[in-house]
TrEMBL record:
Top-level taxonomic group: Bacteria
UniProt xrefs under PANTHER family: ABC TRANSPORTER DOMAIN-CONTAINING PROTEIN, LIPOPROTEIN-RELEASING SYSTEM ATP-BINDING PROTEIN LOLD
Main location class: membrane
Domain ABC transporter: 2-226
Tagged with keyword RNA-binding: no
Protein name: ABC transporter domain-containing protein
Length: 607
C-alpha cells in the first residue's frame, strides 16, 4: 500500500501543503488538474525521482527514501516525453529494462499485438512517429514486474482510437497493479478510472469513485538478463566513439612496452654474450705485490670447486688456427685469445693432453667452410701465437665440437695446456694474471680468507656492473618519455569518458528510471574505461609480438644465427605495464564517476 503522509513541496511557489492520501494495492487512479498544478511533480515524488520534499511517502509502512533500489523494485514509468534511446531499435529499447528488472514473458506477444508494435521491433526509435514512440514507451513501462505503474500523459501523442486502447490496457493492468495516470483527456479519465482525483488547493481531492471489481493477483512468469550482458552491449555500442582514444593509448603502451622490452632484451643479450666470453664463474687473481705468477703458484691454490685454471701473459697473443704451417693464408681462422673449459661435448671426445683441442660449434663450422673438407674431427691444425714479434705455431688435433654457438671464435684447451704450449714455444712460464674457473662463484670469500697474498675478483663483475649502470641511465630517460606518453593517453581517456558522461547524461537518467542503480552506472563508466585500456593493451601486445618476431628473424638472417631470440617479451614487463595502466585508468575514471553521481535525474530527462 502506497501512502502520502503530510507531504509539502514547493519550488518558487508552493505545490502541495501537508498533503496526505492512501493508494490501494491495485486500481486505476486518474489524476487531473490545471496545468502547473504539480501533477508531474507528484509522479516524480511517488516514483522516487524527486526526494526534495517534507513529509513521508511510505510503501507498506517503509519510507521510500530508505528503500534501496526503490525504482527497480516498485516502479514502472511511462513518460509523456517517451524517453526512448534513439540510437537503439524498438526491441533493444524494450530489452533495456530486462537488464535491471524481471520482465513478464508470457504476456509479451499479447501486448505487442495489442499495441501494434510487433512489426516495428527492428526499427530505430528515431524514425518512429510520435504515436509509435508512445506505444513503445508504454509497453516498456509496464512489461516489467513491478507493482506500481506511473503514467504521465500516456496518450498525449495518440489518436482517439489508440488512446482508448491504451486506457483499456492500463485498466486491465490495474486489476493486478497500482496504476496512477495523469491525463488531460477528460472523457477517457471519466470512463476508465477507479478513482478520479484532482490536484486543487495544494491537495489531492477525490472527485469520483467507480465500483471496483478486484481481481486476485496472478503469478507472473518472468525473466531477467544479467547486467554483465548489458555491459558488453554497452561496450559494443560505445566502441566507435572510443576508437581514437584506444589507438592513442595503444601507441603510448606500445612505446613503453617497446622501451622496456628492448632495453631488457638488449641488456640480457649483452650479459649472455659476456657470459660466453667471460663466464660469471670465472675468478681472476693477481699477486698483491704485483709479482708474476708461475704455473706452480697457481696449482697451489686449492679448492674442491675449482674446475679449471690458466695463466695469462698479456704480451702473448693467440692469433688463430690454420691448416698449414704458414700463418697468413686463406685457410687461417683468426681467433680471439680467450680460453675456457668446454661444458657439453656433443661430438668427438674429451681432451686428454695439450696437443688436443675442442672447438665451439660455430668456430668448427667456420673452419669447415675455410678448409673445404667434410669433417675435421681428428684432423691436425696449427695454432699460431705471437710473442715479442715472433710468430710460432703449435700442432694440435681437433678431437671434439662443443655444442655452443659463440659470438666470437672459440677454442677450448686442456687445463694448463696454454702454459705448456708457451713454455715449449717461447720458454715463458709466467703470467701477470691467472684465472680460475669454478663451479660456484660464492667460493670467492673462502679463497680470499685462505690466500691473503692474492687479490681475487670475479672476472666479469666490473664489466657487467658498468654495462648495467650505463643501461640504467638510458632506461630512465626512455621510461620518462614513454611513461609521459602513457599518462597523457590515460588523461585523454579520462577526458573522453567525462565528455561521454556529459553527452549521455539523459541516457544515464533514462536507465535510472528503468531501475538501474547508481553503482551500475558507475560500473558502466569503469567498464568503459577498463575496456578501452584493455583493448589498447591487447592491441599493443599483439603488435609488439609481431614486431619482435619480425625483428628476430631479421637479426638471425642478417647479423648472426647465434641468437635464437634477441627480442623477448618478458612477462614481468607485461604484468607491470598492465597493472600500471589499470591503476591509471581507475584514477582517470574518478572524475567521470563523480559526474555520474552528480546527474540530477529530472533535470537530465528534461535536457
Ligand atoms: N525543477 C524545477 N524547478 C523549478 N520549478 C519547477 C521544477 N519542476 C517543476 N517546476 C514548476 O512546478 C510547477 C508544477 O510543474 P509540473 O510539471 O508538476 O506541473 P503539471 O501539473 O504537470 O503541468 P502540466 O500539466 O502543464 O504538465 C510548474 O510551475 C513548474 O514550472
Amino acid at each position: 500500500m502506497l501512502e502520502i503522509k503530510n507531504v509539502t513541496k514547493s519550488f518558487d511557489r508552493p505545490l502541495f501543503k501537508e498533503m496526505s492520501m492512501t493508494f490501494q494495492e491495485t486500481g486505476m487512479y486518474v489524476i487531473v488538474g490545471k496545468s502547473g498544478s504539480g501533477k508531474s511533480t507528484l509522479l516524480n515524488i511517488l516514483g522516487g525521482l524527486d526526494n526534495e520534499y517534507q513529509g513521508v511517502i511510505e510503501i507498506d509502512g517503509q519510507d521510500i527514501r530508505q528503500i534501496s533500489h526503490y525504482i527497480r523494485k516498485y516502479i514502472g514509468f511511462i513518460f509523456q516525453q517517451f524517453y526512448l534511446i534513439e540510437e537503439m531499435n524498438v526491441k533493444e529499447n524494450v530489452n533495456l529494462i530486462s537488464y535491471f528488472k524481471r520482465i513478464m514473458i508470457f504476456k509479451k506477444e499479447y501486448y505487442l499485438e495489442r499495441l501494434k508494435i510487433k512489426d516495428l521491433q527492428r526499427y530505430k526509435t528515431a524514425i518512429l512517429s510520435g504515436g509509435q514512440k508512445q506505444r513503445v514507451a508504454i509497453y516498456r513501462g509496464f512489461i516489467a514486474k513491478h507493482p506500481i505503474i506511473l503514467c504521465d500523459e500516456p496518450t498525449g501523442a495518440l489518436d482517439a482510437k489508440n488512446s482508448e486502447e491504451i486506457f483499456k490496457i492500463l485498466k486491465q493492468l490495474s486489476k493486478e497493479k497500482l496504476v496512477i495516470v495523469i491525463s488531460h483527456d477528460e472523457i477517457l479519465a471519466k470512463k476508465y478510472h477507479d478513482y478520479l482525483y484532482e490536484i486543487k488547493d495544494y491537495q489531492l481531492k477525490l472527485i469520483h469513485q467507480n465500483p471496483i471489481t478486484q481481481r486476485k493477483k496472478q503469478e507472473e512468469k518472468t525473466s531477467k538478463r544479467s547486467f554483465l550482458q548489458f555491459i558488453l552491449k554497452e561496450l559494443k555500442m560505445t566502441w566507435k566513439s572510443s576508437f581514437i582514444v584506444v589507438q592513442v593509448l595503444f601507441l603510448a603502451l606500445l612505446s613503453i612496452l617497446l622501451t622496456l622490452s628492448l632495453t631488457q632484451s638488449t641488456q640480457k643479450q649483452i650479459h649472455q654474450q659476456l657470459e660466453q666470453i667471460i663466464p660469471s664463474t670465472t675468478i681472476m687473481l693477481k699477486k698483491k705485490n704485483n709479482q708474476m705468477f708461475k704455473m706452480d703458484d697457481l696449482k697451489q691454490i686449492q679448492h674442491p670447486a675449482i674446475q679449471y685454471r690458466f695463466l695469462q701473459n698479456d704480451q702473448v697473443d693467440f692469433l688463430g688456427i690454420s691448416f698449414s704451417k704458414k700463418y697468413q693464408t686463406k685457410k687461417t681462422l683468426y681467433i680471439s685469445d680467450y680460453i675456457q673449459q668446454p661444458q657439453k661435448k656433443i661430438q668427438g671426445r674429451k681432451i686428454k693432453n695439450a696437443q688436443e683441442i675442442i672447438l665451439s660449434k660455430s668456430t668448427y663450422e667456420q673452419l669447415l667452410y675455410l678448409s673445404h673438407q667434410k669433417d675435421l674431427i681428428n684432423k691436425d691444425v696449427y695454432l699460431f701465437f705471437e710473442y715479442q714479434n715472433r710468430i710460432c705455431f703449435y700442432k694440435v688435433k681437433i678431437v671434439g665440437i662443443e655444442n655452443k654457438k659463440t659470438l666470437m671464435e672459440t677454442v677450448y684447451f686442456n687445463e694448463y695446456a696454454m702454459s705448456q704450449m708457451l713454455k715449449e714455444l717461447y720458454q715463458i712460464e709466467v703470467g701477470q694474471t691467472a684465472f680460475l674457473q669454478v663451479k660456484d662463484k660464492n667460493i670467492l670469500k673462502d679463497l680470499k680468507n685462505k690466500y691473503p697474498l692474492y687479490q681475487f675478483k670475479l672476472a666479469n663483475s666490473s664489466l657487467s656492473s658498468s654495462i648495467d649502470e650505463k643501461f640504467q641511465q638510458i632506461e630512465w630517460i626512455l621510461y620518462c618519455f614513454s611513461s609521459l606518453a602513457v599518462v597523457t593517453a590515460c588523461f585523454l581517456l579520462g577526458v573522453v569518458l567525462y565528455l561521454m558522461v556529459i553527452k549521455r547524461k539523459k541516457y544515464f537518467a533514462i536507465l535510472q528510471t528503468l531501475g538501474a542503480s547508481l553503482w551500475q552506472m558507475i560500473t558502466l563508466v569503469l567498464c568503459q574505461g577498463l575496456g578501452i585500456s584493455c583493448t589498447a593493451f591487447i592491441e599493443a601486445m599483439i603488435v609488439l609480438k609481431k614486431l619482435f618476431i619480425f625483428a628476430n628473424q631479421l637479426i638471425q638472417k642478417s647479423i648472426s644465427d647465434l641468437m635464437d631470440e634477441f627480442f623477448v617479451i618478458q612477462n614481468n614487463v607485461l604484468l607491470g605495464v598492465f597493472i600500471g595502466v589499470l591503476i591509471l585508468t581507475l584514477l582517470c575514471c574518478l572524475i567521470p564517476i563523480k559526474k555520474v553521481k552528480q546527474i540530477e535525474i529530472i533535470e537530465a530527462l528534461k535536457s
